[in-house]
Amino acid sequence: MPRTVYEFPSADAVATGLRDLVLRAQDEALSKHDRFTVALSGGSLPNTLAKGLLAKPEGFRWDRWHVFYADERCVPLDHPESNHRLAQTELLSKVPIPSSQVYTLNPALVEKPAEAAEDYQKQLMTVFATKSTVRFPVFDLILLGMGPDGHTCSLFPNHALLEESEQWVGYLTDSPKPPPTRITLTLPVVNHAHMVVFVTTGANKKDTLVQILDRKEPLPAAQVNPIHGQLYWFLDEPAASGLQTT
Ligand code: 6PG
């Protein structure tokens, strides 16, 4: 499916635009089924998302949201490096999503990443059915960030996890971005989503965006191409400033 690239004048405008798209994704999902499944990334995404959603929360059906993490660091859930803690602090503690519908890393498995990945896959199965009935889960919405090296989720350049074609959730113990031990959704899961949105702001992403969007270099973020879904890039002006076309 073709991608759509939006350039906004500022990071605040990105947040406002993102709010409208998330509402659309939610409404589309609820017109087809009774829940809205969304995967959140770490980094700057929870803050941008919260800024947009909390500024105008009307229309959101929080009781229908099922929230997963696109990737998670293998640390306790109250650790400063935890993506869940970040999402909780920025957004989830401020909206009435039932806590049973927020799917976290199993805190008992922080020292056992292979088991933590398997456990997270099982949590996905409770919502999306089993691997014997569906090949890959279909998220209504996956919200991604992109690192300056072109990584997304915890899928880093030249890492063997990029080749994963079976599992829904992978793990790594050698992440170049600390902390080193993480679990992550795999590329086939991301590429089966109904809608995927990259939210990328700041001048330090400018050159990588040229590599991905103009030069089509095969960095991890460039391997996100939903098979049947829509792909959006939400950029602010500093991030988009090197691009030929947006
Ligand atoms: C993580 C993230 C990671 C992040 C990017 C972009 O847990 O490390 O999920 O993939 O989204 O590194 O981060 P920024 O938005 O902070 O640049």
UniProtKB/TrEMBL annotation:
Enzyme Commission number: 3.1.1.31
Cited Gene3D superfamilies: 3.40.50.1360
InterPro entries in UniProt: 6-phosphogluconolactonase_DevB, 6PGL, Glc/Gal-6P_isomerase, NagB/RpiA_transferase-like
Pathway: Carbohydrate degradation; pentose phosphate pathway; D-ribulose 5-phosphate from D-glucose 6-phosphate (oxidative stage): step 2/3
Domain of life the protein comes from: Eukaryota
Swiss-Prot/TrEMBL catalytic activity: 6-phospho-D-glucono-1,5-lactone + H2O = 6-phospho-D-gluconate + H(+)
Keywords assigned by UniProt, alphabetized: Hydrolase
GO biological process, one term: carbohydrate metabolic process
SUPFAM superfamilies reported for this sequence: NagB/RpiA/CoA transferase-like
GO MF terms held by the record: 6-phosphogluconolactonase activity
EC class (word): hydrolase
Glucosamine/galactosamine-6-phosphate isomerase domain: residues covered: 10-233
Role, per record: Hydrolysis of 6-phosphogluconolactone to 6-phosphogluconate.
Family: Belongs to the glucosamine/galactosamine-6-phosphate isomerase family. 6-phosphogluconolactonase subfamily.
Descriptive protein name: 6-phosphogluconolactonase
UniProt source species: Dispira parvispora
Gene name of this polypeptide: SOL1
